[in-house]
Amino acid sequence: MAITKIHRITSTLNKALDYIKDKNKTDDTLLITGYGCSPEIADIEFEQIRRNALKPGGTLAFHLIQSFAPGEVDYETAHKIGVELTDKVLKNRFQYVVATHIDKDHIHNHIVFNSVSFTDYKKFHSTASVYRYIKRQSDILCSENGLSVITIPQSKGKSHYEHLLDKKGQSWKSKLRKTIDYCILKARNWDEFLFLMDKEKYEIKCGKYISFRAEGQERFTRSKTLGDPY
To answer: Contact at 8 Å (CB) between 60 and 75?
Structure first.
């Protein structure tokens, strides 16, 4: 099973690359692979392509995270899956660095790739359909390597009102699920998870069940109402 997330890098690309290449997280850099660039100077080589394409600003690169369930995959297989996923998505058109982090219970891949192709100087467009393609390819690779695949449960228990809000992208629960997923991937422990949720402007109430309330939301949402994974 693997969870994928993607976001844009619009500044300090060198810091993002330095973070993913940390030798203490990547088995002394053994779990780092670069394509079309040298991982050591990838930020400089990425920039050169963007300058050649006359597109030096805006989105500098994209950062894709692929996180595996604890204890389900070994280091080498996780790294192999990360490289194969990147090749499937980028189709040998974009420079990239794949780094597998093994410092947490859940092994995870950090994939940073240039926003501009070195073959045709066209930009990478991150859209909802592209993300669905990435997730589908990740699931296929997990299945091929004997890993479990996340199945999306039917929306049992959703009210008609929440269905309408979901269609408009306004459901409190949908936004909360996405925020929790994001913070779980970023956090190193429970306290940091709570800190990140607070940073995302969620009020937190701890009792028998932990509850969250976003800015503008009238009532708290109990995590137990979000579905079994939560």
So the answer is: no
101-125 pLDDT, tens per residue? 999 888 999 999 999 999 999 999 9
Instruction: Give the up-direction half-sphere exposure of residue 26: CA atoms within 13 A in the CB hemisphere.
Output: 21
Alpha helices in 116-171 (DSSP H): 128-144, 160-168
Question: In whole angstroms, what separates CA 202 from the centre of its chain?
Answer: 21
Residue with tokens 């296929």: 140
pTM over 0.85: no
pLDDT (tens digit, 9 = 90+) per residue, 207-222? 778 899 998 888 889 8
Q: Which residues contact 123 (CB under 8 A, 6 or more apart)?
A: 55, 59, 115, 116, 117
Report phi then psi at 157, rounded to 5: 90, -5
**Cα separations in angstroms, 45 against 22, 69, 71, 133:** 19, 33, 36, 27
**Which of 177, 208, 206 lies closest to 194 in space, CA to CA?**
206
Contact 100, 75 (CB under 8 A): yes
